[in-house]
Amino acid sequence: MKKRNKTIFSVLGLFLFLLVVASSGCSSGPAHFKRRVSASDTFEQFNVLSHHQYYYFGRPDALLAVVAIEEGYRLASPRWTATDMDVLSLKSMVGKMLNQPGAEYNINPNGAYILDDDGETIGLWYSVWRLPLLRFTSEKEFTISDPQTIFPINNREPDDDGIILPDTGP
After folding, report:
1. Residue 31 reports pLDDT greater than 90
2. Residue 34 covered by a domain
3. Looking at the domain assignment, is residue 61 inside a domain?
């Protein structure tokens, strides 16, 4: 009985140790995002934010995400494309994302505030896909990983640029 208790406590101790290590070193990921309907509304009402640089992920005909980053910050991920934004472009981008297969399964708001390491808002995220990982490489520069599908399970091969696009049917 004592040996069994010792094993249980050893397993629990290891679990707690791993939990502490995993949470203490995390300065990336969903902690840098705060999902809010108001962030979704900014995109879905086609409000173009001044003093923000817009980037998209995917191809213009198959967008996966759009972000608006405050002036003074730089998104340094090579597969995100900077773009000038106007109301018609934003309306087209949002429409393309909302019509992706699987978008109807997303129960969370599509928009999120992007936060720096201090929890201050530095931009907005919009996508029907999962929140990505975000990692600061310097005080004002960061990377955002590729957006990942929620549903259905994405088992398609990447295109020539290494991007896995949603299945648009036959």
Report:
1. no
2. yes
3. yes
pLDDT attached to residue 21:
39
- Please answer whether residues 71 and 52 qualify as being in contact, where contact means their C-beta atoms are separated by less than 8 angstroms: yes
**Which domain does 80 fall in, by range?**
27-144
pLDDT tens, position by position, 67-99:
999 999 999 999 999 999 999 999 999 988 877
**Residue 77 forms part of a structural domain:** yes
| pLDDT surpassing 70 at residue 168 | no
Tell me how many domains the chain contains: 1
Distance, CA of 66 to CA of 82 (rounded, Å): 10
Q: Is residue 26 pLDDT above 80, yes or no?
A: no
